[in-house]
Amino acid sequence: EASSFFDQSGIETENCSEGGLDVAFIENGDYVGYKDVDFGTGANAIDIRVAANSGGGTIELHLDGPTGKLIGTLDVEPTGGWQDWATQRASLTETSGKHDLYMVFKGGEGYLFNVAAFKLNVPGGTSVTKDYILGDLNDDKKVDARDLTELKKAVKAGTIDELDPADLDGDLDLTAEDAKLLRDYLTGKIESFPAAE
User: Fold this and answer.
1) Which is nearest to 168 in space by CA: 138, 135, 141, 190?
2) What is the pLDDT of residues 99-126, one digit of tens each?
3) Which of 84, 121, 166, 181 could cross-link 80 (Cys pair, CB 3.0–4.6 Å)?
């Protein structure tokens, strides 16, 4: 979650409509820092879950300090509300290993946008993204009750090895809503997951 920073300037946190807390009341020049973010063998993009009422602004991505090496910039597009979340992607200068990651916020007067979560895109082997089936947590190529058991356990523990197949609502976070969606899918209430749309 974006609220799990170890360093910050100027921001506050608030309850997020998608669960947990988001980084809010962001103004020009504020920043947040995340300790020991693992860029793996070479992250080349970052997905950031943002909400912007009408303005927007820019998120600068720096390594190891708010004035450290600039590896990417996201121009945040308005989403229509402070809790209307969208995932927006920024390209990164390919970065590997563990670094402190800082988001430095730039923009005009007033509050700019809110940030709920982020996820690095680390290419696996030759493919840009790992092949997976939404809902197939145990990687047996089918979605069934065993996957629901795995997902419930992961939600309770608050951690999971592979988020992509479990993030059924596409909010870049593991929540009880994901387990509800999988249950609804298995019982025939829904035919697909929001993350696939």
Assistant:
1) 135
2) 999 999 999 999 999 999 998 987 653 3
3) 84
